[in-house]
Amino acid sequence: MKRKLVLTGAFIGMLAIILGAFGAHLLKKYLSVDQLNTFEVGVRYQMYHALFLLFLATQKELAEKTLKSIYNLVVAGVVLFSGSIYLVATKDYTLFYSKIIVFATPVGGFLLIIAWALLFFAILKRKS
């Protein structure tokens, strides 16, 4: 599980850097300032959660089941939250956009919140 956490965290982080550069350099010509700011929120939260996965890999006392649950919540949350933000920000230029995509953002955000809460309560229950 630790390897999976590190590999996924590294991949999501790398992708965040690529998308951030793409937004800052290429999309700058096409998107409004508001759209670029929206895009940047997706990149920022994606990077936060890449680092979160890397942090999880260092936690030796968390149960495997807890790590898997947090991992699944974070991956699904990043895809829904950041992914939907990227689509909303670039809706004028992407082939796939539907009004239903805006519902993915709060669902993804809720999954990320649950992941953090799960870590909080797992550590709270742990004996120091």
Structure write-up:
With 128 residues, the chain is mainly alpha-helical. The chain has one domain (2-125). It contains 4 helices and no strands. α1 (2-26) packs antiparallel against α2. The protein is elongated and about 55 Å long. The model has no long low-confidence stretch (mean pLDDT 91).
Summed up:
This protein is mainly alpha-helical and 128 residues long. It has four helices and no strands.
Strand content: under 5%
Alpha-beta classification: mainly alpha
Secondary structure tally: strands: 0
Helix content: over 70%
Number of helices: 4
The 3D shape can be described as elongated
Q: First CA to last CA: what distance?
A: 23 Å
Subcellular location: Membrane
Family: Belongs to the UPF0382 family.
Keywords: Membrane, Transmembrane, Transmembrane helix
GO cellular component, one term: plasma membrane
Keyword list:
mainly alpha, 0% strand, membrane
Structural topology:
Elements: H1 2-26, H2 33-56, H3 64-89, H4 104-125
Helix pairs in contact: 1-2, 2-3, 3-4
